[in-house]
Design brief:
Layout (H helix, E strand, L loop, with lengths): L2 E7 L3 H17 L3 E8 L5 H11 L8 E6 L7 H11 L4 E4 L4 E3 L3 H10 L4 E4 L6 E4 H6 L13 H12 L3 E4 L4 E3 L4 H5 L8 H18 L20
Parallel strand pairs: 1-2, 1-4, 2-3, 6-8
Antiparallel strand pairs: 4-7, 5-9, 6-7
Helix pairs in contact: 6-8
Length: about 230
């Protein structure tokens, strides 16, 4: 079974350069694994770096690197970026994470164990916003709610929706993933509005509360979510 590691990136190639070796090691330890990098109109050397990885890193023949570039916006849209990263991948299960995620060599093997036990989606207790989910369930659930334009809360909203949908959950062992220490200014600098991290999370909390109150089972219903087309208001 092919598992895709799905990573959207805008101007964070410097982080990916630090975390990619751990992704490759985990992929090589339990192939087949696709590493899918979604270039969200990044202005740094992301494309050049991914090309270099393809040619110089010790990739198992069953570990392809997929690269897709989106140019529809000049700023980062968090939920749309995650949705596009999944759309760019091909695996039956998707491990969705940011550029700052560092995984242990046994990470993919642990994912496969939970899949064998019937888990449709999974995360660790200290999951840092990282989730693994069956591709079809992600699509059926409408992906990430694309009202989450800014940092924070989109993962908890997706989790609440999956629980309401009755998708079988699997708890990942702790200690298999951690994230790089990143200043809040770095986490928020590529968004459309100059909001603080706290302000962004407050906006997300309001969306999450509304979805919980309504008992939403499918996000973005009736909308073309995860679209590669340039939005009218970009």
């Amino acid at each position: 079974m092919l598992i895709s590691i799905c990573i959207p990136c805008m101007n964070r190639a410097h982080d990916l350069k630090r975390t990619m070796p751990s992704l490759i090691a985990a992929a090589n330890a339990s192939p087949p694994v696709e590493i899918a990098v979604l270039d969200y109109n990044s202005g740094d050397d992301l494309r050049e770096y991914v090309c270099k990885v393809r040619w110089t890193e010790p990739l198992d023949w069953q570990t392809p690197i997929t690269y897709r570039r989106y140019t529809g916006r000049d700023y980062y849209h968090l939920a749309h970026g995650y949705n596009l990263a999944v759309r760019a991948s091909t695996g039956e299960y998707c491990a969705i994470m940011g550029t700052d995620a560092v995984v242990a060599p046994g990470y993919i093997a642990a994912v496969r164990k939970l899949i064998a036990e019937g888990a449709v989606w999974m995360r660790a207790k200290d999951y840092k916003g990282i989730i693994v989910i069956q591709r079809q369930e992600f699509i059926d659930a409408g992906g990430y709610d694309e009202r989450f334009e800014f940092y924070g809360g989109e993962d908890k909203d997706l989790e609440a929706r999956l629980r309401r949908r009755g998708a079988k959950f699997g708890l990942m062992p702790q200690g298999l993933v951690h994230t790089l220490r990143t200043p809040d200014s770095e986490k928020t600098r590529n968004y459309r509005l100059p909001l603080s991290k706290r302000e962004m999370m407050q906006r997300g909390a309001a969306i999450r509360a509304e979805n919980n109150e309504r008992g939403v089972l499918i996000a973005n219903e009736g909308k073309g979510w995860g679209s590669w087309e340039r939005p009218l208001n970009a």
